[in-house]
Design brief:
The protein has about 375 residues and is of the alpha/beta class. The chain contains 15 helices and five strands. The chain folds into two domains: about 5-145, Response regulator (Rossmann fold); about 175-365, Hypothetical protein af1432 (Orthogonal Bundle), CATH 1.10.3210.10.
């Protein structure tokens, strides 16, 4: 039943193009009982009809016509968005092998010689329309699959973002110093990373996808603070040297927690690897005087070097229980003074290039809670 045109093809449209009324009449009488038939009595008219509703599913095209010949018509059909994919079958009195070869080379899907044989025309038309239905079905299937893949990727990314935020907020609930710290430092990291996209050394690896990865991972930098005792983490004043050593363990604790999460997954998750580097190394110093591993220079992961500038700048410019916020200009001076000892000079340069944006983010996301 699927091969019966009267059952399966009632809505399919065939455009007949021929300058001979007699030839048109023969084809119309043959095809009209089975398909929606449209006609054009020349090449110029055919181009107009082919772009109007209902659009053709198949075009039967004569070659020898006075205005535009069939080769010229098919060439223009392939250039028009509405018709570039419509199958064309040449129906012509040109019967030599080289004529057929030229017609197929011009882009025709099939070649029928006149005088036509009705059974051959019907079979060829049915074959081309069956192929079109198959192509349409495959295209629709592919479009559905692409949309479904995109939906699931988006859903996965959303769940990932929520999980990151939840973990980061867990640390925030135990730390009086955070407030909008996560939002500000995440925005600072994005600014710095985006600026490095034009850097001759860092640019090739700082793709848009990697910038997004760094931004996504940044909120987990202090996740290790969940392992710090309240007596140290929540102390309202400055820490003693002993308490400072306890506080410094949060970097290794955070990296260990993320590493355990990595071990629990069946495949490598890139943002966890980046988050682990940030959590462990964002307190390292360019001169090797940081913690926990006393890394120096390029041995410090770039992600952690970005976070170091973002984190320190935010600490300087926000109010904490034990200090007032430092004026913007004074904080900038301290970042500059830290170039080459505390911070990577390239990242300090990026910071200075985006100062106005840093200030805007700082002012827009001030903490509203009481100290």
């Amino acid at each position: 039943m699927a091969n019966n045109p009267s059952m399966s093809s009632a809505r399919e449209t065939v455009l007949i193009v021929d300058d001979s009324p007699a030839n048109i009449a023969v084809l119309v009488s043959l095809l009209q009982p089975l398909y929606r038939v449209r006609v054009a009595n020349g090449g110029i008219r055919a181009l107009a009809v082919a772009q109007s509703e209902p659009l053709p599913d198949l075009i039967l095209l004569d070659i020898m016509m006075p205005d535009l010949n069939g080769y010229q018509v098919i060439e223009q059909l392939r250039e028009l968005p509405a018709t570039r994919d419509v199958a064309v079958v040449f129906v012509t009195a040109l019967h030599h092998a080289e004529d057929e070869e030229r017609g197929l080379a011009a882009g025709a899907a099939d070649y029928i010689t006149k005088p036509i044989q009705p059974s051959v025309v019907l079979a060829r038309v049915r074959t081309q329309l069956d192929l079109k239905r198959a192509r349409d079905m495959m295209r629709d299937q592919n479009a559905y699959l692409e949309a479904e893949v995109a939906r699931r990727i988006s859903e996965t990314l959303t769940v990932q973002e929520v999980a990151i935020r939840a973990l980061a907020r867990l640390a925030e609930t135990r730390d009086l110093e955070t407030g909008n710290h996560l939002l500000r430092t995440q925005s600072y990291v994005r600014l710095l990373a985006e600026h490095l996209r034009t850097h001759p050394v860092h640019g090739p690896t700082m793709t848009a996808a990697h910038v997004d990865l760094l931004t996504k991972s940044a909120p987990l930098h202090d996740i290790g603070k969940v392992g710090i005792p309240d007596s140290v983490l929540l102390k309202p004043g400055r820490l003693t040297p002993e308490e400072r050593l306890v506080m410094e363990t949060h970097a290794a604790l955070g990296a260990a927690a993320i590493e355990q999460a990595e071990a629990d997954t069946e495949q490598r998750i890139e943002f966890l690897s980046v988050a682990k580097d940030i959590a462990r190394s964002h307190h390292e110093r360019w001169d090797g005087g940081g913690y926990p591993d006393h890394l120096a220079g390029q041995n410090i992961p770039l992600s952690a070097r970005l976070m170091a500038v973002a984190d320190v700048f935010d600490a300087l410019t926000t109010r904490r229980p034990y200090k007032e916020a430092m004026p913007f200009g004074q904080a900038v001076d301290l970042i500059i003074q830290g170039s080459g000892n505390h911070f990577d000079p390239d990242i300090v340069d990026a910071f200075l290039a985006r100062l106005a944006d840093f200030q805007a983010i700082s002012e827009r996301n001030q903490d509203n809670r009481a100290a």
